[in-house]
Design goal:
The protein is an alpha+beta fold. The chain folds into two domains: 151 residues, Sandwich (Jelly Rolls); 76 residues, Arc Repressor Mutant, subunit A, CATH 1.10.10.10. The chain is 42% helix and 24% strand. It is built from nine helices and nine strands. α7 crosses α8. The protein is elongated and about 55 Å long.
């Protein structure tokens, strides 16, 4: 059952205005946007494992990640998940159902405890009409997600399993900031195998091979990238 945000324990008030201003999605936009959203936005600390929504739920909330990480996936009848994306700090998610008021297209689960900003559709849509810049930024995000989805389909068709795994790790490694990429990826071997469409056993075998070569280090619940240039070289063969 989906955990409702109202079921979470009450926490001391956070500086919502500062969180919104610092978030990359809102940074650089008209200050009036933050001023209007601050009293309406909800800041919550959410524990690892919390289900934010399920595929098929009616969506009315947009989520902005301040800290932590969220897995976006879809379940199959066999009980397996297809992982579409991992949302890290500085990103938003839930925008599709948020914009059209329809059903969620995937599950969203916290895989690393953190802090979210939550905005209701009824409070946000009027801003789209008043401030065109925010609508343009949303369109840019949607286009980026579409490009990423198309690229993933192409990778499954044209790249072998080793190259897909290397490309996925590099993508996650560079997500936070091109100038200061995270060396640790908070993802399990099961999750990365589902992202690239390879069995967990094959993924484990390949990761351990790269660990022996000092490309990366495996730890419980995460992967430390030591030699991104070595992974890049695998894509140039």
């Amino acid at each position: 059952m989906t955990l409702q945000m109202t079921d979470l324990p009450r926490l001391p008030p956070l500086d919502k205005s500062a969180l919104l201003r610092a978030h990359p999605f809102f940074r650089g936009l008209d200050a009036a946007i933050v001023e209007q959203l601050t009293p309406r936005a909800v800041a919550r600390k959410v524990k690892r494992g919390t289900v934010l929504f399920r595929k098929g739920d009616i969506g009315s909330k947009l989520y902005a990640v301040h800290t932590g990480a969220v897995r976006i996936s879809a379940p199959s009848e066999e009980g397996k998940d297809a992982i579409f994306n991992l949302i890290v700090p500085g990103e938003i998610f839930g925008e599709i159902a948020f914009l059209d008021g329809g059903q969620r297209t995937a599950d969203a689960v916290m895989i690393e405890s953190g802090e979210l900003m939550i905005i209701e559709r009824r409070d946000f849509v009027p801003l789209l009409r008043e401030f065109p810049d925010i609508a343009v930024r949303l369109i840019e995000i949607l286009c980026e997600r579409l490009r990423r989805t198309s690229e993933q389909v192409e990778d499954i068709v044209f790249l072998d399993a080793e190259a897909r795994l290397a490309k996925a790790l590099l993508h996650l490694y560079r997500r936070s900031s091109p100038a200061s990429p995270r060396t640790k990826i908070d993802i399990t071997q099961r999750e990365i195998s589902q992202m690239v469409g390879v069995s967990r056993e094959s993924t484990n075998k390949q990761l351990r091979n790269w660990q022996r070569r000092k490309y990366l280090t495996l730890e419980r619940g995460g992967i430390f990238i030591l030699a991104p240039e070595a992974l890049e070289a695998l894509l140039e063969v």
